[in-house]
Each structure stands twice: as C-alpha cells, then as structure tokens.
Amino acid sequence: MTFEKKSRIIDVDVSHSIACGTDMTGTLCWKLTDGTQYMPTPEPLFDIKDIAINHKSGCAIVGQEVKCWTNRHSRTRVDSYWKPLPTAVTFTDPKKIFVAHTSENYCAIDSGEIVCWSSGKWNPGAVNTAPPKYADLRNPSDIEVGRSAACIRHDDGIDCWGAKSLPLVSDVPTFTNPTHLVVGLSYACAKGDEGVKCWGQAPAADINAPELLPHTELRFGYPGVNSYDERGMSGWSTRPAQIGPYEMQELVNPIDIDFDYGYVCALDDTGIVCGGRHNAAATVPARFKY
C-alpha cells in the first residue's frame, strides 16, 4: 500500500512558532513552544482540496468555493473570524491557493488563470501589472506571494506581478532553467544556470546562499531566507554569519515540508514530524501520527 493511498493528512504548515495540520476532518493548529492547540477556522471545514495558512489568516478551497478567515491572537486564546472575499474576486474552478508569509495577500489558480487579492488591492493607489496566464506556462512552480507582488518560476524563466512601481516586479533578472525561487517582503531570490541572484528593494548582490541542491526547499523568513534539505535547515541573508543548520529526525519518504523561525515540520510515512533549533522533537498532536 502506498503512502498516498493510506494518508488522511493532506497538508502541514508552519508560521512563526505555530504549526497546522490538515486532514479529512479539518485543520488543527498548535504552538510548537508549548503544544497548545486551537482550530484556526471559525467553524470546521470538511472536504478541503487545498489550504494556505500563516499565523494571521488563511484560505481554503472547499468544493468549488474559496473560504477565508483572519485570526486574532491573545495571550490565552486565538479567535477566528470569516473574512469575505473582495466582490471583484470570483472563482469557477479553483485548484490551488497560496498565501504571503506575513500578510493577508493571496493568489489562487482558477480555470487556468492566476487570481490575486488583498482586501481588493495589492497596494492602494499603485498601478498593478497583471499575472501571466497560468495555462500558458511550461512546468510552472507554486506561486510565491510577497507583500505587494508575487512571482512564479517556469521552464522559460520567472514572472513577477503586482505593484508596478516595485523593483521586485520591474527588475526581474533573466534566469535560464530556473530551479529555485523565494519571495520576501519586497525582494526575491532565485537560482538558474547563472547562479543565485536576488532583486527588489535593497537586494543582496552578495547574499550568503549555501549550495542549493535540486531538491532544496526555500522559504522566506527571519532574518532572510531559510533553506531545508537533508543537511538540515539553514538561514541565509546579507548578514555575514550563516545560521544553522538546525537538525531534525530523519524523515521517511516526505511529501510535504514547511518551516519558519527555526522550526520545521514535514509530512512523511509516520505522519507529521516537527523539530528545529528550539527543541529537537517538537510535540505533534496524536491525531497527526500514523
């Protein structure tokens, strides 16, 4: 029996020191620091096809609908509220959804098109460039969403769209055979045959990037970019010192990995596994263990 057939867990997300797991009965989040659990949505969602979460908010594709919510964190609890989509944002056949690292900016793939929104606009008063047509891209990657723009990698290069005045959108370098892409608040980094290059507001020409293996995963996070592969997790930025690597237990056939702020969680044959610099084996609810 293959892992995909036996699995009821469909997604794992990490944002700051919070992890969220999604299975056939909905989504449950927990604080990696102390294990406190909470449900991030105002009501349970079933039949989730795809989900995107950060510590502030989230959206999920449920059937043919996109449902979004926002979270308010206090010292003792997390309160969630439904957040209606802007009236101009509609869907006919949503397939995948993506969220920015720290803000309530979203992009979704719908009927071969890319749809993005953030309270109706990327950046109030800005002149925005349109995204490419998703169906025309050769071997497209996931969409990387930033504060006022987003980018996507494909066989013919990298496209960015959003607030037109941003160097992140207007100054995209040429990449041949791009293999990696990550978007920060107002800058991005990618690797192609030309090596690792960054662009945007105050990009780092001499960014301290480790060797990126073909399967190295990248995420934007403090203090710059996090990378993860079998060597562990490392943080790299314009700062002279490289942070990490942070180790975690060996994974068994992982199919989903997410990480942030020194924590990493993965979905493998045993369920969800978490670890990082703060504790070698962060607690995972029994619901997400096989």
Account of the protein in words:
- InterPro entries: RCC1/BLIP-II.
- With 290 residues, this protein is an all-beta fold.
- It has 2 helices and 25 strands.
- Helix content is 3%, strand content 46%.
- A 4-stranded antiparallel β-sheet has the order 1-2-3-4, with no helix packed on it. Strands 5-6-7-8 form a 4-stranded antiparallel β-sheet, with no helix packed on it.
- Strand 7 and strand 8 (78-82) form a beta hairpin.
- The longest helix is centred in the first third of the chain and has 4 residues, at 3-6.
- The radius of gyration is 18 Å and the shape is globular.
- Residues 1-6 have low confidence and may be disordered.
User: What's the oligomerization state?
Assistant: single chain
Helix/strand/pairing category: mainly beta
Mean pLDDT across all amino acids = 85
Main beta sheet: strand number and arrangement? Answer: 4 strands, antiparallel
How much of the sequence lies in strands comes to over 45%
Number of strands: 25
Q: Sum up the overall morphology in one term.
A: globular
Radius of gyration: 18 Å
Low-confidence stretches: 1-6
**Separation of the first and last Cα atoms:** 14 Å
User: Would you list the SSEs in sequence order as H and E?
Assistant: HEEEEEEEEEEEEEEEHEEEEEEEEEE
Strand order of the largest sheet: 1-2-3-4
Helical amount: under 10%
Number of helices: 2
